[in-house]
Amino acid sequence: MHCSSPKMVCETKIVADEHDAIPGSKKEPMMWSAGATSSASVEAKDVRRDAVFIREFERGDQEEVRRIFYEGIMERIPNTAFRGLGQQPQTQFLYVLLTVMCFFVTKSLMLTCCAPLALMGARYYYSGKVIHGYLDHALHTDMADIEAYYMKPAGSCFWVAVLDGRVVGIVAAQGREDDNAVELRRMSVDSRYRGKGIAKALGRRVLEFAVRNNYAAVVLGTTAVKMAAHKLYESLGFRRTGQSEDYRLPGMSRSPAERLFFQIRYSRYRLQLREE
Q1: pLDDT tens digits for range 16-72
Q2: For 39, 91, 147, 198, which has the most beta carbons within 10 A of its beta carbon?
Q3: pTM of the model
Q4: Which residues pair with 110 in a beta bridge?
Q5: CA pair distance 96, 132, nearest whole angstrom
Q6: Strands 181-189 and 166-176, how do they pair?
Q7: Conformational region of residue 226, where left means phi above 0, alpha means psi within -120 to 50, and beta covers everything else
Q8: From CA 6, how far away is CA 47, in angstroms rounded?
């Protein structure tokens, strides 16, 4: 079940985005183009300059892969601290209550006006603290040795998207024997190259891998705050199967202050490929 044939299983070529379902039954490399259907002659002779190739991870990619992963996770700090609050009505109510209590205790309008700023500052601090802890955990486990975690085990693989010789995106697939599913993991695209359909192509690469290796489903879990990430998964055919409002990331201490100023929503998605 391991992706041992890079020509057939682990190499994909795209030019931009594409809206059709993944051709899971095909075994030739694939190519997508924006606004036009690709021909075999174009694929063989003339690949546009903005062509993005998706191939298996190589040892020399490690530094760029870790950079893309690190930068993608670091974006979660302000998103979780500020945007994430919009998804937490109970926390909003608690912060309003604390602000009102500040006025009744201090009788100071100035201190009361400063209270929301202090609360937002605390949210940013604890978001940074938790997410740095999560990064440290990830960079010392699977992202420290991608070959050992994803390339050697049967039923798993790791791919990079390459544009003009530069790694611009990453994604992993990790097989699970207990439910015959593949977990989509570590998807991230360099912020300078977003909007080119790279993330969707990486997602399709995992789906194709699952189909060709006879998995019954593809699953994923995400703490993404931006709706664009959720719309991407839905556009690939995933359906939300569950949601937790108080998810615990690796590295969290769950102290009272951390619980007050850091909450994150965890969504589970599943794409059923076939019935068992």
Answers
A1: 333 333 433 333 333 443 333 344 444 434 445 568 899 999 999 999 999 999 999
A2: 198
A3: 0.79
A4: none
A5: 28
A6: antiparallel
A7: beta
A8: 20
3-class SS letters over 6-35: CCCCCCEEECCCCCCCCCCCCCCCCCCCCC
Residue 19's region, left for phi above 0, alpha for psi from -120 to 50, else beta, is alpha
* Parallel, antiparallel or unpaired: strands 157-163 and 52-56: antiparallel
CB atoms within 10 A of CB 147: 12
